[in-house]
Fold this sequence. Notes:
This protein is α/β, with parallel strands linked by helices.
Amino acid sequence: xxxxxxxxFGGMLAQALAPLQKYPKLSLCLLVDDAVVNLIDExxxxxxxxxxxxxxxxxxxxxxxxxxxxxxxxxxxxxxxxPQHPQDLEQHVWLGGASTRYLQxxxxxxxxxxMKLPVRIRATQVTALHALCVAGWGISIAVSEDDHQxxxxxxxxxxxxxxxxxxxxxxxxTPRRDEQPAKVRHALALLAEHVARYAx
Length: 200
Protein backbone atom coordinates (compact mmCIF):
# COMPACT_ATOMS: atom_id res chain seq x y z
CA UNK A 1 0.00 0.00 0.00
CA UNK A 2 1.35 3.41 -1.01
CA UNK A 3 0.44 6.49 1.03
CA UNK A 4 1.48 10.08 0.30
CA UNK A 5 1.48 12.93 2.81
CA UNK A 6 3.05 16.36 3.37
CA UNK A 7 6.41 16.31 5.14
CA UNK A 8 5.03 17.78 8.36
CA PHE A 9 2.70 14.81 8.81
CA GLY A 10 5.12 11.92 8.59
CA GLY A 11 5.04 11.53 12.36
CA MET A 12 1.26 11.46 12.36
CA LEU A 13 1.29 8.63 9.82
CA ALA A 14 3.66 6.60 11.98
CA GLN A 15 1.32 6.92 14.95
CA ALA A 16 -1.98 6.52 13.14
CA LEU A 17 -0.94 3.48 11.11
CA ALA A 18 0.90 1.67 13.93
CA PRO A 19 -1.82 -1.04 14.15
CA LEU A 20 -0.89 -2.14 10.62
CA GLN A 21 2.28 -3.66 12.06
CA LYS A 22 0.29 -6.75 13.05
CA TYR A 23 -0.17 -7.63 9.36
CA PRO A 24 3.24 -9.04 8.34
CA LYS A 25 2.18 -9.65 4.74
CA LEU A 26 1.23 -6.01 4.21
CA SER A 27 3.97 -3.88 2.67
CA LEU A 28 3.78 -0.14 3.17
CA CYS A 29 5.45 2.67 1.23
CA LEU A 30 5.19 6.23 2.60
CA LEU A 31 5.86 9.05 0.13
CA VAL A 32 6.43 12.08 2.36
CA ASP A 33 6.77 15.23 0.27
CA ASP A 34 5.15 18.65 0.19
CA ALA A 35 4.80 18.43 -3.60
CA VAL A 36 1.38 17.32 -4.83
CA VAL A 37 1.78 13.89 -6.38
CA ASN A 38 -0.28 12.36 -9.16
CA LEU A 39 -2.09 9.43 -7.57
CA ILE A 40 -2.48 7.52 -10.81
CA ASP A 41 1.09 7.97 -12.09
CA GLU A 42 2.63 7.19 -8.69
CA UNK A 43 0.17 4.35 -7.93
CA UNK A 44 -0.88 6.02 -4.68
CA UNK A 45 -3.62 4.34 -2.66
CA UNK A 46 -4.16 7.24 -0.22
CA UNK A 47 -2.91 10.82 -0.26
CA UNK A 48 -3.35 13.25 2.62
CA UNK A 49 -4.14 16.82 1.60
CA UNK A 50 -4.59 19.85 3.82
CA UNK A 51 -6.66 22.87 2.83
CA UNK A 52 -8.95 23.51 -0.11
CA UNK A 53 -9.16 20.86 -2.79
CA UNK A 54 -9.29 21.49 -6.52
CA UNK A 55 -12.09 19.88 -8.52
CA UNK A 56 -11.03 16.37 -9.34
CA UNK A 57 -12.24 12.96 -10.43
CA UNK A 58 -10.56 11.55 -7.33
CA UNK A 59 -12.49 10.61 -4.20
CA UNK A 60 -12.05 12.87 -1.16
CA UNK A 61 -12.91 11.87 2.39
CA UNK A 62 -12.80 14.48 5.13
CA UNK A 63 -10.74 13.19 8.05
CA UNK A 64 -11.16 16.21 10.31
CA UNK A 65 -9.97 19.73 11.00
CA UNK A 66 -6.77 21.05 12.54
CA UNK A 67 -6.32 24.34 14.32
CA UNK A 68 -3.78 26.83 13.02
CA UNK A 69 -2.06 29.35 15.29
CA UNK A 70 0.22 32.34 14.78
CA UNK A 71 3.49 31.61 16.54
CA UNK A 72 7.04 32.79 17.06
CA UNK A 73 10.06 32.01 19.20
CA UNK A 74 10.16 33.87 22.53
CA UNK A 75 13.59 35.30 21.63
CA UNK A 76 12.20 36.85 18.43
CA UNK A 77 9.28 38.48 20.26
CA UNK A 78 11.48 39.73 23.08
CA UNK A 79 13.70 41.44 20.52
CA UNK A 80 11.06 42.73 18.08
CA UNK A 81 8.08 43.22 20.36
CA UNK A 82 4.88 41.29 21.05
CA PRO A 83 2.02 42.21 18.67
CA GLN A 84 -1.08 43.45 20.48
CA HIS A 85 -3.32 43.81 17.41
CA PRO A 86 -3.31 42.31 13.90
CA GLN A 87 -2.20 45.65 12.48
CA ASP A 88 1.04 45.27 14.45
CA LEU A 89 1.87 42.21 12.34
CA GLU A 90 2.75 44.43 9.39
CA GLN A 91 5.88 45.55 11.25
CA HIS A 92 7.18 42.01 11.74
CA VAL A 93 9.17 39.50 9.72
CA TRP A 94 6.87 36.92 8.18
CA LEU A 95 7.80 33.33 7.38
CA GLY A 96 5.57 31.67 4.81
CA GLY A 97 5.15 28.88 2.32
CA ALA A 98 5.29 29.23 -1.43
CA SER A 99 1.57 30.08 -1.64
CA THR A 100 1.18 32.15 1.53
CA ARG A 101 -0.39 35.46 0.51
CA TYR A 102 -3.20 36.50 2.85
CA LEU A 103 -4.10 36.13 6.50
CA GLN A 104 -7.66 35.81 7.80
CA UNK A 105 -8.24 36.36 11.51
CA UNK A 106 -11.36 36.24 13.68
CA UNK A 107 -11.06 38.10 16.95
CA UNK A 108 -12.97 39.26 19.98
CA UNK A 109 -16.52 40.51 19.41
CA UNK A 110 -16.61 38.57 16.11
CA UNK A 111 -14.23 41.03 14.46
CA UNK A 112 -12.87 39.71 11.15
CA UNK A 113 -9.70 40.94 9.47
CA UNK A 114 -8.13 39.94 6.19
CA MET A 115 -4.68 41.30 5.45
CA LYS A 116 -2.02 40.79 2.84
CA LEU A 117 1.08 39.21 4.30
CA PRO A 118 4.42 40.84 3.49
CA VAL A 119 6.25 37.50 3.55
CA ARG A 120 9.96 38.18 3.75
CA ILE A 121 11.22 34.61 3.96
CA ARG A 122 9.61 31.70 2.11
CA ALA A 123 10.24 27.98 2.32
CA THR A 124 8.69 25.17 0.29
CA GLN A 125 8.61 22.72 3.21
CA VAL A 126 6.89 23.06 6.57
CA THR A 127 9.88 21.47 8.29
CA ALA A 128 12.07 24.34 7.06
CA LEU A 129 9.49 26.91 8.20
CA HIS A 130 9.38 25.24 11.60
CA ALA A 131 13.17 25.35 11.96
CA LEU A 132 13.28 29.01 10.91
CA CYS A 133 10.54 29.94 13.36
CA VAL A 134 12.13 28.10 16.30
CA ALA A 135 15.46 29.75 15.44
CA GLY A 136 13.84 33.16 15.84
CA TRP A 137 13.67 34.33 12.23
CA GLY A 138 10.11 35.64 12.43
CA ILE A 139 6.40 34.88 12.83
CA SER A 140 4.82 31.87 11.19
CA ILE A 141 1.61 29.84 11.18
CA ALA A 142 1.74 26.66 13.23
CA VAL A 143 0.19 23.80 11.29
CA SER A 144 2.46 20.75 11.66
CA GLU A 145 2.84 18.35 14.56
CA ASP A 146 6.34 19.76 15.15
CA ASP A 147 4.87 23.26 15.50
CA HIS A 148 2.25 22.15 17.99
CA GLN A 149 4.80 20.20 20.02
CA UNK A 150 7.00 23.31 20.11
CA UNK A 151 4.04 25.35 21.34
CA UNK A 152 3.51 22.77 24.07
CA UNK A 153 7.14 22.78 25.24
CA UNK A 154 7.68 26.55 24.99
CA UNK A 155 10.08 26.59 22.02
CA UNK A 156 7.35 28.57 20.27
CA UNK A 157 4.66 30.75 21.81
CA UNK A 158 1.29 31.83 20.50
CA UNK A 159 1.04 35.26 18.90
CA UNK A 160 -2.30 37.08 19.30
CA UNK A 161 -3.91 34.03 20.96
CA UNK A 162 -7.32 35.76 21.10
CA UNK A 163 -7.35 35.95 17.29
CA UNK A 164 -8.16 32.73 15.48
CA UNK A 165 -7.16 31.50 12.05
CA UNK A 166 -9.56 29.36 9.99
CA UNK A 167 -9.22 25.67 10.74
CA UNK A 168 -7.39 23.60 8.16
CA UNK A 169 -9.38 20.67 6.81
CA UNK A 170 -7.54 17.41 6.20
CA UNK A 171 -8.76 15.07 3.47
CA UNK A 172 -7.76 11.60 2.40
CA UNK A 173 -7.74 11.35 -1.38
CA THR A 174 -8.10 8.01 -3.13
CA PRO A 175 -8.42 6.94 -6.76
CA ARG A 176 -11.99 6.32 -7.89
CA ARG A 177 -12.70 2.60 -7.71
CA ASP A 178 -15.83 0.46 -7.66
CA GLU A 179 -14.73 -0.75 -4.23
CA GLN A 180 -11.70 0.20 -2.17
CA PRO A 181 -9.46 -2.72 -1.12
CA ALA A 182 -9.82 -3.82 2.49
CA LYS A 183 -6.32 -2.55 3.36
CA VAL A 184 -7.23 0.93 2.11
CA ARG A 185 -10.52 0.97 4.01
CA HIS A 186 -8.71 -0.08 7.18
CA ALA A 187 -6.00 2.58 6.76
CA LEU A 188 -8.63 5.26 6.14
CA ALA A 189 -10.43 4.25 9.33
CA LEU A 190 -7.20 4.43 11.32
CA LEU A 191 -6.37 7.88 9.92
CA ALA A 192 -9.85 9.22 10.64
CA GLU A 193 -9.72 7.86 14.19
CA HIS A 194 -6.31 9.43 14.81
CA VAL A 195 -7.27 12.85 13.46
CA ALA A 196 -10.48 12.82 15.52
CA ARG A 197 -8.61 11.88 18.68
CA TYR A 198 -5.49 13.98 18.29
CA ALA A 199 -6.69 16.86 16.14
CA UNK A 200 -4.19 19.68 16.64
